[in-house]
Amino acid sequence: MTRDKQIVDYAKGLMKLASENGTFSEERASAILQVLEKNPPRNYAGVLKEFLKLVKREVANNTAVVEYAGELSPSAIDGIKSQFTNRYGRDISVTASRNDALIAGLRVQVGCDVYDSSVAGALKELEATLS
Amino acid sequence: MSSVIEQIEQQIANLQTKTVQSNIGKIVTIADGVAKIEGLSEAMYNEMIEFPGGTIGIALNLEEDAVGVVILGESTHLKAGDEAKCTGKLLSVPVGKGLLGRVVNALGAPVDGKGPVESSESYPVEKIAPGIIERKSVDQPLATGIMAIDSMIPIGRGQRELIIGDRGTGKTTIAIDTIINQAKINEVGLASGDESFRPVYSIYVAVGQKNSNIARTLGVLEEAGALKYTIIVTAGASDAAADQYLAPYSGVAMAEWFMSNGMDALIVYDDLSKHAAAYRQMSLVLKRPSGREAYPGDVFYLHSRLLERSARVNEDNGNGSITALPIIETLAGDLSAYIPTNVISITDGQIFLETDLFNQGIRPAVSVGLSVSRVGSAAQIKATKQVAGKIKLELAQFRELAAFAQFGSDLDAKTKAQLDRGSRIVELFKQPAFNPLPIEEQVAVLWGIQNNYYDDIDVSRIVPAAASIREFFTTRKEVLLVSIREKAKIDDELGAELKKAYDEWKPSFA
């Protein structure tokens, strides 16, 4: 087994430990990091890097990053949260940020899925059809 | 200008506030035309991946947390961190008659400066080959116009006949001759108004060749008037390995359109050695494990899935066909190398061209002993069978005995007769490049050798004699040629007419 593969497998094992009933737990993840600090494994830096990558991906898969132009009411955010929780069958948290470049509408990203209902996105699509 | 504004206004009016879902990823590394992308969780094998600037790639390595994408065309503007997007479409190319007379790249985009290609349909480049039930036996000839091949190694519609030989032995010439001959047959057939006539459309796929060679081929086809029945798919030596890998599949997708619409197509892959090398290059960059001669383990599958798509389908499936002429370049005549043996085992026969014969001036340099057509005489008209039945055997015997030729004085009469006859057949089969002969002319010439009309002509004068008899028939006995073409067999009446014609010609040549 190559060193890279060992690191990846080890990080995946840590990721399993960081899950509680199939969902990622921040508390367990920080406990894992404390244990690793006390007893660092071989290729410690590599393991940490790989673990960080997996954690980032897990967080991204469970987070709906909402970009909006104009105003977005708390009830709309709740609506988005429940919609995506139903869609993906897991608890999706929402982080919202204002982005006036969208002109109007929303852009939501969950992991590598992007849902674009903004005017900027529609214009981009129109541009692609015209070129 | 006003029409453009109107068009844009209409499109803006049609804009709906709909949500567009897409699946994206980020380039992690990019090198040698291959990008490793994180994300793209929905990517399919062979899916087109869109990059900034409209660049397209194909997803070939689907890993657990990354996708290996081979970029088609220019990739220098791409960098790590750029976004890539799934298109949801498997790689497909435009198909249809609008491509005839055009030169396109591996993606079906025109590269001949004649404007956009007229095509309303597209076919996937990767497709499962027709199954057993859909097929039927090969029973219709596909004449190459080369006497040595049409008489001894006949090719049928739906067959895969490999053209193999060293560099510079005339492999491409045979393929081009075939395309030209089919164009000539198309001209005659379509002009005759015969509704049962089935034209053959050709696709010439140039893989890894110098652009000057491709341009020369294009010029030859244009000059012969064959371009209007031909599509040229080009992935030259200067194109990316991915384009070279893709071009044959694009070509066969275009050919499949003809087959699935009940027409006949001929596809030339020139050449599959370079195709395999391009695939090897791509696979190594994708970090796939290498096997024999550093080719990846699936190099046999690479060619088998390509050549299996050539078929003759039955009436229930449109009665169309794809005939394939793959070309393989050998090194020092080594047929037992990896790629040649693979392709020999996939195809239904091979035409082996020998360097020695070529250098002796025997062109086309067909090796009779090593060339076979596994379809055999099923792909010959009866007239050819009647006049050429024994020729291959006689020529093979001649080659066996040729070693004794130097002891000419010590030979018995039978051996000497065989050598004399063989040397005349060899001379008769000499044919200049890009000069395919109609099957009726071939029959007329071969009838002469079968009936010993060349026996008293000196070997050195056989070539002019053959030219003379052809000229005699085309200028003075055209009715006879037409009747050979229409009857497709030599009955007693036709035999008598041919005898009379030869008796008339013989004194004029002597």
UniProtKB/TrEMBL annotation, chain A:
Protein origin, superkingdom: Bacteria
Q: Pfam families from the entry? A: OSCP
Molecular function (GO) terms listed? proton-transporting ATP synthase activity, rotational mechanism
Q: Name one GO cellular component term.
A: membrane
Using the UniProt record, give the first listed, main subcellular location.
membrane
Q: Which UniProt keywords apply?
A: ATP synthesis, Hydrogen ion transport, Ion transport, Membrane, Transport
InterPro entries in the record, alphabetically?
A: ATPase_OSCP/dsu
Q: Where in the cell is it found?
A: Membrane
Official protein name in the record: F0F1 ATP synthase subunit delta
Organism field: Pelagicoccus albus
UniProtKB/TrEMBL annotation, chain B:
Span of domain ATP synthase alpha subunit C-terminal: 380-504
User: Membrane spanning segments where?
Assistant: none
Could you tell me which residue ranges the ATPase F1/V1/A1 complex alpha/beta subunit nucleotide-binding domain spans? 145-373
- List GO molecular-function terms, semicolon-separated: ADP binding; ATP binding; proton-transporting ATP synthase activity, rotational mechanism
Q: What is its main location?
A: membrane
Q: How is this protein positioned relative to the membrane?
A: Peripheral membrane protein
Q: Name one Pfam family in it.
A: ATP-synt_ab_C
**Residues annotated as domain ATPase F1/V1/A1 complex alpha/beta subunit N-terminal:** 20-88
Q: Which reactions appear under catalytic activity for this entry? A: ATP + H2O + 4 H(+)(in) = ADP + phosphate + 5 H(+)(out)
Q: Which UniProt keywords apply?
A: ATP synthesis, ATP-binding, Cell membrane, CF(1), Hydrogen ion transport, Ion transport, Membrane, Nucleotide-binding, Translocase, Transport
Its GO CC terms are:
plasma membrane; proton-transporting ATP synthase complex
The entry's family comment says: Belongs to the ATPase alpha/beta chains family.
Q: Subunit info?
A: F-type ATPases have 2 components, CF(1) - the catalytic core - and CF(0) - the membrane proton channel. CF(1) has five subunits: alpha(3), beta(3), gamma(1), delta(1), epsilon(1). CF(0) has four main subunits: a(1), b(1), b'(1) and c(9-12).
The UniProt function text for this chain reads: Produces ATP from ADP in the presence of a proton gradient across the membrane. The alpha chain is a regulatory subunit.
Instruction: Please state what the protein is called.
Output: ATP synthase subunit alpha
